Amino acid sequence: MSVSSASVIRNITTGVPGLDTVLGGGLCEYSFNVIAGAPGAGKTTLVQQILFANASPERPALYFTVLGEPTVKMMRYQQQYKFFDTTMVPSSLRFVNLGAEAISENLDAVLARIVAEVKSSEPAFVAVDSFRTIGAHLRGGGESSELSDFVQHLAQELTTWEITSFLLGEYSEQERRHPVFTVADSILWLSEDVDRNSAVRKMRAVKVRGRAPMPGLHTFRITSAGLDVFPRIPEQQRARVVRTKRRLRTGVPGLDDMMNGGIPVGDVLMLTGPAGSGKTTFAAQFVAQGLADNENCVVAVFEEFPEAYLARVKTSPVDFGEMIALDRLAVIYLRPLDLSVDEMLSEIFAAVTRTGATRVVIDSLSGFEIALAPTFRVDFRESLYRLVGALTATGVTVLMTAEVVEMFAEGRWTSERVSFVTDDIIAQRYVEIDGHLRKVLAVVKMRGSNHATDFRSYEITATGAAIGESLAHYRGITTGVPTLASSAT
Amino acid sequence: MARVIVDRVLARDKAAAAPAGATGLDPSLVAACSRVLANLQNTMGHDGCAALLERAIAQTLSAHPALKHVVRIGSQGIELGGAVESPDAREITAIQVAIEAVLASLVEILVRLIGEDMTIRLIGDERPSAPADENRAS
């Protein structure tokens, strides 16, 4: 009989939104973790957030400060975070300064003090901030044998005392030979990408023993609540919802007929058109129809504040404000110029999950692109691909609007850079007929479905958009200046 | 506010009153000083604690000239020197008032820097835990 006697490594959830996903589930209990990054990267905030989420009088934490930022200043600033609960100090989290031992340049004294404090408090968690300053005086710096011995002994002591530990340090990628990286069970590298006027914080789980961390760079933001990590979600890692043949009503009279009954559930529809062509109106009607059909919706707006958006759609027969109050509709405002696609996904997923939405509107892709940090704009196609893939995997139907700049003869029907991610494309444009500016549209593409191929005029009135007559009797509509076909004259 | 905190710290050590030491100072004051400074030293390090104390003394000295008789205040106790090797009761009282003022000044600085709640917890002044701020994230 074979009985498995392998020890079970208990999981510690970090309490940092998104971080457990990056780490492959959380931290391993009794692990020896290194948090590395440049000054200001967020190391102290990250570790204190984890400690305040996990420490208790029964499982206390010791936070050793060494040299560098004065403790009183660190406390002054860290207290501004909502996670910093002063009532937990010192019963659950105690700050201890190792400055005197570190200044003495005697690593044995540093180790002896840490061990003495550990013996006296029997903590479940220990942090050393900043570990980099310990042994900085040694000849050979991070590669000295004395420091290597110290790290080995420290890791040995902390593991023996069944402590989950965090060593924080201002290391650069070039210092990967520092002994602490060899001994570490996990390494989290925090960094900041500066591109033109934007700065994007990123983290990477370089190594996580006992777990399968999510690869790649993950963006994070530091707010008054602490760190919020946005895991980079590859499309294939999400379970896809099985598609059905059901179609959704668009809410625009006449448009469902052009689309062979409406938008197939789970499709991604892109509605393109020049400024003022009624893209937002169409999208609002799609939302209103969903709400009327007892489906919940999420609208992500980039180009105007939610109040302005709601004022613009107030003529809808469905009261959007009331729907928001009932949590059947969420209007997400995402306007910063340093967003990552993962941050946006995180916001949309949270709203979809909260409301149980089946319809998502992104108004508009142009605004989304501008809201992204420059570093993500370069990879906009990839960002959009991941966004769309992750959204549709949940089974929601997505309507995205996109502005095309050209209004007349030289106009493009879709943005060639992004149309590849869509199932359906409806293109709006202006044409001149008999000296009048008319709005027309055509269903350019519907993946796996029949659809109308003729151009139709449409009107935007006080009650919304409605499809009008077919322009099948005109020729040259794509030029912007059509003429009546000879057979129609 | 700082004075209230200091009075509470001193009252705590009054309960365990011991006979006056060689300096003639109230032993509860000596014990309170040692305890507060040891706690701060542990948290902020020797240099951090010394910097705070130095500023507290500088702020107090002009109003309490008796402080010049104090050679050292620290986690190891209080040492007097000079003309007050055999101080009379009036001098002792003036020195004690001055030391209490230093403590109050030190607490006041800390409260300004890290807030009242954190200060109380760092100097080791025990009082019933207040419920956590409802606005704080869990």
How would you describe what is shown here?
Chain A has 489 residues and is of the alpha/beta class. Helices cover 28% and strands 28% of the residues of chain A. Chain A has 15 helices and 24 strands. In chain A, the strands form 5 sheets. In chain A, strands 5-4-6-7-3-8-9-10-11 form a 9-stranded mixed β-sheet, sandwiched between helices. The N and C termini of chain A lie far apart (92 Å). The mean pLDDT of chain A is 87. By secondary structure, chain B is mostly helical. Chain B is built from 4 helices and 2 strands. Chain B has helices spanning 2-14, 27-60, 89-114, 116-123, and strands at 70-74, 77-80. Chain B has a two-stranded antiparallel sheet. The chains are: A alpha/beta (489), B mainly alpha (138). Chain A binds chain B through residues 53, 65, 70-73, 75-76, 79, 82-87, 89-90, 94-100, 225-226, and chain B through 41-48, 52, 110, 113-115, 117-118, 121-122, 129-133, 135-138.
Question: In short, what is this structure?
Answer:
With 489 residues, chain A is of the alpha/beta class. Chain A contains 15 helices and 24 strands.
